[in-house]
Design brief:
The chain has 148 residues and is α+β, with helices and mostly antiparallel strands. Helix content is 26%, strand content 26%. It is built from five helices and six strands. A six-stranded mixed β-sheet has the order 1-2-3-4-5-6, with helices on both faces. Strand 1 and strand 2 form a beta hairpin. The termini are far apart.
């Protein structure tokens, strides 16, 4: 079920058919967390995620996706607002809509990773990992550069 939220001249939609893959791929491929990501990887990630597009009219100006089992866990990823649209409260509105989404309620754990947006995410209840010694990861930060 697709959900849409309107505010002023902006729209947030979970309809994947509205997504502009060129905008999403272009942004992610130059981001610090997914530099050089292949378009096919972006397409596959979108296919297997709950996606939130932010639009001004028909123009996509932001995006986020959530990877979840919809029962116990969610990981919020690839959150962005295009630079020329920042400062309008769109990232806050996007996070409000993600956190209020009916399929993401009652989860035991919700994670995300950020280099520089800690204050934004704290407003929605995120904090540093309480027990970092319990978490492990396999990290390949340069994987897309290696494949290029």
């Amino acid at each position: 079920m697709n959900i849409e939220y309107k505010r002023g001249g902006y729209l947030i939609s979970t309809d994947k058919l509205k997504l502009d893959l060129d905008v999403i791929h272009s942004f992610l491929a130059t981001s610090y967390w997914a530099e050089n990501i292949p378009r096919q990887v972006v397409e596959r990630a979108i296919e297997h995620s709950l996606c939130f597009g932010v639009y001004e009219g028909d123009k996509q100006v932001g995006f986020a996706r959530v990877v979840s089992d919809y029962a116990t866990f969610a990981y919020i990823a690839d959150v962005f607002i295009l630079e020329s649209y920042r400062g309008k409260g769109l990232s806050k509105w996007l996070m409000e809509r993600i956190m209020a989404h009916p399929d993401l309620q009652g989860l035991r754990r919700c994670l995300l990773a950020t280099r520089d947006a800690h204050e934004l995410y704290r407003k929605y209840g995120f904090e540093g990992v309480r027990n970092p010694e319990r978490f492990m990861e396999i990290s390949n930060p340069d994987i897309y550069k290696q494949q290029a």
